[in-house]
Design brief:
The protein is of the alpha/beta class. Helices cover 45% and strands 14% of the residues. The protein has a seven-stranded mixed sheet, sandwiched between helices. A four-stranded antiparallel sheet has the order 2-3-1-4, with helices on one face. The structure holds S-adenosylmethionine.
Length: 474
């Protein structure tokens, strides 16, 4: 059984490896890989496969790696304020190691302060930074001292993780006076995003959004109504000791609380009784009101969460064309459809904005079209620890041009009485309501039936999603 504390494993003193060190070593590797351009989920997966750790240690690697990546801005601010050299000028290996140690000191309720410091120093010694081990030790202790000065008696090297994590992680830091800069620093967001949040939302909702982005996202399932009912699934999950409850307002939605381990081992997975889908994403296919026998186009379909939902709602009768530009990702659509026992989904690799040229026989063909457009993903930052550091305002501008082209490309494909849903998993108005407003202004023959925007941090929980239902005027 792994322990996050840095006690020493029972082996000969020379070979002694502090318990939990391998997990921290793996998390450090993930931070380095992500800093060199790897995607966080791919880097974590690779490291977990390579390190062959026990389940409890795998959970620790995930918590530390994702947590430290999310908190990069705040952790850098600490290094800037306690170090002689700014974080960005530190040797990168040391910077990421310090992030790992600091993350534990500031956030991890289960790691005592002494263990956070000692394992970081030990990793420095074993990981090619022996000369810098005293620097690592000095900086982590300087952070502890700063926090002790501000909250005397509440935190020091002997503190439990729970005591340290109960204090705000920025306690002891000098905060900027500008509200957006302070939000960016406290909640570890890029400044451009914090500034936009302050424009779009009240101070409280901006804070709730930022907080939601820094927490592991809720885990929701969608029951495959063709194979199982929600009641049946809730019963077998409970029998298997999994905490689960229905999601209000979603007949197929089930929320899993507590630890679940490998989801593929849960009852009903192999039998295709359910799939993982966030509650906000589960609302999108419903907006199309698809009927058995319909011809449906899902224009940006991979990995197939919404195609499979549409197929379930249609009783697997009719045809769903699942189009995506990525053939590799379409393979996931086929695998998911197979597992769920759905046969009405057909796949095609194509740039969806050019479908009219590629498939002239599709002109006016579809009863329903879903355009779940590629987007900045600002509504799903909690799911992608590194996403906030990748996306830029310039990239969003490019995306809006593609989104508009995709939307225009769908119009000739819809039957005259058909319905089109434009959806994204972002909260940026330029990709959502503003894009739709410009589109409708240029197309007076189309009208908006409804639109909605959910935000991370809202009471309903779940990702941030936008959806607009549009139809041609009769
Ligand atoms: C938001 S994801 C779709 C998620 C999917 N609808 C689901 O529910 O599982 C966007 C998808 O658009 C695809 N994509 C991006 N540009 C595209 C284009 N020009 N034509 C078709 N697909 C595109 C990406 O490969 C990606 O799989």
């Amino acid at each position: 059984m792994a322990s996050p504390a840095a006690s020493t494993a029972k082996s000969s003193p020379k070979e002694a490896v502090p318990v939990g060190l391998a997990a921290r070593q793996a998390a450090w590797q993930v931070l380095q890989a992500v800093a060199s351009g790897a995607y966080a989920d791919a880097a974590l997966e690779r490291e977990l496969q390579r390190s062959k750790l026990e389940p409890a240690d795998r959970a620790l690697v995930t918590e530390l790696a994702y947590g430290a990546i999310r908190q990069r801005r705040l952790l850098d601010a600490w290094l800037d304020q306690v170090g002689k050299v700014p974080a960005r000028k530190q040797p990168p290996k040391l910077r990421w190691l310090l992030h790992l140690g600091l993350y534990q000191l500031l956030f991890s309720a289960r790691v005592p302060a002494s263990a956070a410091v000692s394992t970081t120093v030990e990793l420095a010694k074993r990981g090619g930074l022996a000369r810098l081990a005293p620097v690592a030790n000095g900086m982590l202790r300087a952070v502890l001292r700063r926090r002790e000065e501000v909250a005397p008696g509440e935190v020091d090297a002997g503190s439990s993780g729970a005591a340290a994590a109960a204090l705000e992680p920025w306690l002891g830091l000098d905060l900027p006076s500008d509200p957006a800069e302070a939000l960016a620093l406290r909640r570890s967001l890029p400044l451009w995003l914090a500034a936009l949040l302050r424009e779009w939302l009240s101070a409280d909702r901006a804070e709730a959004f930022a907080l939601a982005c820094n927490q592991p996202p809720p885990l929701d399932l969608r029951v495959n109504s063709l194979r199982c009912s929600s009641e049946q699934l809730l019963t077998v999950l409970k029998e298997a000791g999994v905490e689960a409850e229905p999601i209000a307002g979603l007949s197929a939605g089930i929320h899993l609380s507590g630890r679940t381990g490998d989801l593929r081992r849960l009852p009903g997975f192999g039998e295709g009784h359910w799939c993982v889908q966030d509650r906000a994403a589960q609302r999108i296919a419903l907006l199309l009101e698809p009927q058995p026998g319909h011809q449906v186009l899902d224009a940006c379909a991979a990995p197939g969460g919404k195609s499979t939902h549409l197929a379930e709602l249609m009783g697997d009768r009719g045809t769903i064309w699942a189009v995506d530009r990525s053939e590799a990702r379409l393979e996931r659509v086929r695998r998911n459809a197979d597992r769920l026992g759905l046969s009405c989904i057909r796949t095609m690799a194509a740039e969806a904005q050019h479908l009219t040229e590629q498939k002239p026989q599709w002109l006016g063909h579809f009863d329903r079209i879903l355009l779940d457009a590629p987007c900045s993903g600002l509504g799903t930052l909690a799911r992608h620890a590194d996403a906030r550091w990748r996306i830029t305002p310039e990239a969003i501008e490019e995306l809006t041009a593609l989104q508009r082209q995709l939307l225009e490309g769908m119009l000739p494909l819809l039957a005259s009485k058909g319905r089109l849903v434009y959806a994204t998993c972002t909260v940026h108005p330029a990709e959502n309501c503003e894009l739709l407003a410009a589109f409708l202004a240029d197309h007076p023959d189309w009208h908006l039936i409804s639109s909605s925007q959910s935000w991370p941090g809202d009471a309903a929980g779940g990702d941030g999603f936008y959806a607009a239902v549009i139809e041609r005027r009769s």
